[in-house]
Inverse folding.
């Protein structure tokens, strides 16, 4: 019996992308409306870290092959 070949990091990557998108969007809004409260550099570092993690571990689960 073979084990599943799903990408175990796909769910975690989706959560990470969602959280970083929300943080970046909020900081972008703050940069436009209230520049003194903005922390856009930290948000950009989070976006870069997320990009690296998704590239390294993949975003979509690997397709399962059926053995007939």
């Amino acid at each position: 019996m073979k084990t599943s070949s799903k990408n175990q990091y796909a769910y975690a990557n989706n959560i990470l992308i969602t959280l970083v998108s929300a943080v970046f969007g909020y900081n972008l809004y703050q940069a436009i409306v209230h520049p003194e409260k903005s922390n856009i550099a930290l948000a950009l570092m989070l976006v870069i870290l997320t990009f690296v993690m998704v590239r390294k571990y993949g975003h979509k689960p690997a397709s399962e092959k059926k053995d007939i």
The radius of gyration is 17 Å. Residues 1-5 have pLDDT under 50 and may be disordered.
